[in-house]
């Protein structure tokens, strides 16, 4: 590739590439990331969260309803005026609940997000089909299946490799690319994580084109 063509891409194409972090969480008590039980997920506006409901794979399937709640409900594992997020209820298939953190949600009654605020997800279902509608305790209390999500920045047009590394490995937690069904062990504390995928399309694009 000629240097002039590379320069053109850098000056005119790169600024148009949208940079988005992809955060994946396996919603199953046996594979739920240990780190997320104590450490909030840090996201920027424009990032995408995918909650993966794994099929049984020969194990007991866990049925769960997921809700947005306030901090008190999150800490005490109970539902009071929750906002519906999604459900894990298909035993023979792996399903996903996806959302993008937007300041203004185009979906009617959709959740809006603001920089500097923390949002909370819990499931008080027991894991059994009979207990899917339970409103207190459940997976949240007995398996700590709850998420705190801190919106820390605005949507960015580009990230350097050093910024990605610094963000993803803060607090001794390693985030790695994975396939559904695999367990990835990483981080200074040897956490078993099926975790946040922090692969940015813009970084791949620029690395592949310019280097």
From TrEMBL:
Domain of life the protein comes from: Eukaryota
Domain Ephrin RBD span(s) in chain numbering: 20-151
Chief location: membrane
Lineage: Eukaryota, Metazoa, Ecdysozoa, Nematoda, Chromadorea
Gene3D superfamilies in alphabetical order: Cupredoxins - blue copper proteins
Compartment list: Membrane
UniProt KW keywords: Disulfide bond, Glycoprotein, Membrane, Signal
Signal peptide (residue range): 1-19
One GO cellular component, as annotated: plasma membrane
SUPFAM superfamilies xref list: Cupredoxins
GO-annotated biological processes: axon guidance; ephrin receptor signaling pathway
Name of the protein described by the UniProt record: Ephrin RBD domain-containing protein
Pfam family, one: Ephrin
Family named by the database record: Belongs to the ephrin family.
Family matches, as InterPro entries: Cupredoxin, Ephrin, Ephrin_RBD
GO MF term list: ephrin receptor binding
This protein's record includes keyword Transcription: no
Organism: Caenorhabditis elegans
């Amino acid at each position: 590739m000629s240097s002039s063509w590379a320069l053109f891409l850098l000056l005119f194409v790169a600024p148009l590439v949208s940079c988005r972090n992809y955060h994946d969480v396996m919603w199953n008590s046996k594979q739920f990331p240990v780190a997320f039980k104590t450490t909030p997920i840090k996201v920027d506006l424009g990032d995408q969260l995918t909650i993966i409901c794994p099929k049984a794979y020969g194990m007991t399937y866990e049925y769960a309803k997921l809700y947005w709640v306030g901090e008190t409900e999150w800490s005490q594992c109970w539902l009071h005026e929750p906002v519906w997020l999604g459900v894990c209820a298909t035993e023979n298939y792996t399903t996903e609940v996806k959302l993008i953190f937007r300041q203004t949600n185009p979906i009617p009654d959709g959740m809006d997000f603001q920089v500097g605020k923390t949002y909370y997800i819990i499931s008080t279902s027991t894991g059994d089909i009979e207990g899917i509608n339970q409103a207190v305790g459940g997976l949240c209390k007995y398996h700590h299946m709850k998420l705190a999500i801190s919106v820390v920045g605005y949507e960015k047009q580009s990230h350097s490799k050093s910024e990605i590394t610094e963000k993803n490995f803060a607090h001794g937690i390693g985030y790695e690319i994975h396939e559904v069904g695999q367990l990835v062990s990483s981080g200074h504390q040897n956490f078993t994580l099926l975790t946040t995928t922090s692969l940015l399309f813009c970084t791949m694009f620029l690395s592949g084109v310019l280097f």
